[in-house]
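idk why but the lab printer keeps eating my pages so im just putting this in chat instead. protein + zinc ion:
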Amino acid sequence: ASVAPEVGSGTSTFGGSRTIPTYSSGGTYYLYDTTRGPSYIRTMTGNNGTSLPGSYITDTDNNFTDTAARAGVDAHYGAVTVYDYYQNTHGRNSYNGAGANITSTVHHRVNYNNAFWNGQQMVYGDGDGSQFQALVDLDIVAHELTHAVTGATAGLIYQNESGALNEAVSDIMAVMVDRDDWRLGELSYTPGVSGDALRNLANPPEGNQPDNYADRYTGSQDNGGVHINSGIPNKAAYLMAAGGTFRGVTVASIGRAKTEKIWYRALTQYFTSSTNLAGARQGTLSATADLYGSGGAEYAAVQNAWAAVGIG
Ligand SMILES: O=C(O)[C@H](CCc1ccccc1)CC1(C(=O)N[C@@H](Cc2c[nH]c3ccccc23)C(=O)O)CCCC1
Ligand SMILES: [Ca+2]
Ligand SMILES: [Ca+2]
Ligand SMILES: [Zn+2]
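predcted complex ->
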C-alpha cells in the first residue's frame, strides 16, 4: 500500500540505531506512529527556529540515517517507549489517560541547552555540544512526558515544595523507564565527560541537590528550587527501591516495581496541586497501604525512607 504504518529504523544521536514506528505515504516516510492508542505520535523538527510544532521529519526510505534526523529518531523512539511504559506498567493510555496525541519537536532554537513540555507538546534543544548534546536521552523524554501526566492529574503547582515534588515525580518515572541506572540525562549531559549526569537519584548531591529536608533550598531561584529540592523526594524514592542505611535510618529495599506502583498511585489518587513534601510522604503511605497493606514491609520501607531524608 502507498499509505501505511511501517516499522523503520534510524541512527541514534548516541550511537547505534533505533527501531521506530514510521508512516509512509507516496514513497515518503515520516516519524509518525498510528499503531498505538493516540491517533498519532509524531516527531517534528523546529529547523533551529522557535515555531512549533515545526515541520515533519521525512526520509525517502524507511531508514532515517541523515545526521539531521538523529535527534528526531531518539525523540520519537523515546516518545513511543514512554507511551508503552505508561500503558503497559500503569494501564494509562497516553498522558491524559484517554489517548491524547503526542507531538515532539527537536532542533528547537540554536545550541539550546534545555528541553521542556509546554503544556501541549515536548520540545528539545540540540545543546551547545559542550554542556549538552541533543537533550533526547530516553530518561529526559520520560521526564518531559511525565510533566504532561502530572498536569493531567495532580497538577502540582510548579513552585516551592509542590514544584519540587512535580520535578521529583518526573525524575522518578524517568529512571523507572530508563531502568538500568539512577542517573538522569547521562547520555546528553557533557558529551566530553564520561560518568557524570545532570542529576543522580541515588546521590542527589552529585547534581548539587540536597538529599535531606534540613538542607532544603528556601530561596526564590528556579521557582523556589524546584530542580534543587527535588533531590529530597528523589532520594526517598531511591531508598524505597534500592534500600540502604542513610543518616542513621535503615530502609529495606522493596524494589523498583513496587516503588513505581506506589508513586504512580500517589500521583494519580492522592497528590493535589498544593501537595508539599509532608503531603508527599502521606500520599505515598496511603498508596502503599492501598496496594500492600499498612502492616507490611512495603509500608515500613516507605515510612523509613521518608524518615531517612528528614520528613515524618
Ligand atoms: O522539564 C524540566 O524540568 C526542565 C524544563 C526547563 C524549562 C522550563 C521552562 C522553559 C524552558 C525550559 C528541563 C530539564 C531540566 O531539568 N532542566 C533544568 C537543568 C538545566 C538544563 N539545562 C540547563 C541550562 C542552564 C541551567 C540549568 C539547566 C533547568 O532548566 O533548571 C528536565 C530534564 C533535562 C532538562
Ligand atoms: Ca539514566
Ligand atoms: Ca557526560
Ligand atoms: Zn521537569
